[in-house]
What does this fold into?
Amino acid sequence: MKRHQSFLFPRPEIPFPYRPDSPAAFPSSRSQSLLTRWRNFNVKKRHDPVQILPLRKGDIRSLGPNDIPLIFLTHNSIQFLPSFLAHYRTLGITRFLCVDDQSTDGTREKLLDENDVDLFGSNIRYRQANGGNLWREALVRIYGTRRWYMNVDCDEYFIYDECETRKLPELIAGLQAKGVLHCPAPMIDCYPSASLKSAVFDGSLGVMPWEIANTFDRQGYRLFRTSSAMSMMGGPRDRLLDYPEHYDELMKYPLLYVEHDIAFTISIHKPWPFHRNFSPIYGSLLHFKFFSETEDFVKKAIEGGQYFKGSRAYKTMLEAITAGRLDNLTSDVSVKFENSKQLSGLGFFKSVF
It folds into this structure.
């Protein structure tokens, strides 16, 4: 991917230097051309019969005007569900819209018992669904456009300034007042302050993942501006993993106003329309990949073959685990997570309030 204008991140003294003066900085004709080429390339996938069917009688239930829905996809995520659902309910999510990708660990049964979860299954797997994007599109077609959606994975926890006391409706009102319709959020990889093998996260009720993987890198990230979105790389994976020709994309847009069912056509890392993807950063995603169970998870991900480029990122991670490079992930840039004010003070996001 061609990148432009690299910036160290976070930089509290110049925290947001990459926003264009106006959407015209990236003309709509260019964005439209990119989207057209992608859809033509992907035409066979898009016209294959993709079905998502409700797994519980009574779904599908329409959304009300004040509902804030969250889209997520699952595959054997049972250990994250108690904390994941609790975190987003506390923030103000009123409905969870989920496609389960043939889980076998009790994930499906757990979600069927949750009244605010609309659960679907599919006739295809995650990889066939274009990395789940076709499922996301299908959910938006079912539940409607012209509304705000949260869109995250089960191991991602959205944090914004004062999120401990201010709910999502207040954040959304602040974003709208500033003309922000796509809220970018860097993914911050969290890891244990002690050895990886000692960090057991089993989904016990009331235990949040940042109580176990309680540390993150306070610096060492790089932001880029491309023609369609912002991009970020860095953190502990960049320090410890050998990525000679590729990288893990760490910028997502978890909270966005969706006007078209093609919002997720290309990627969750660059939603449509592209010109909305250059807003200041008002939140971050705490991302949890490093626990005692990481090696087993990585091996299963490689065996399943459902992830990007033949699960190449997981293969690189397994090499590092085997070599002992992930026995302890801490360094001189490590700091223990405290709260949203800490992240704001370090420059990871600014306050909308």
The chain has ten helices and 14 strands.
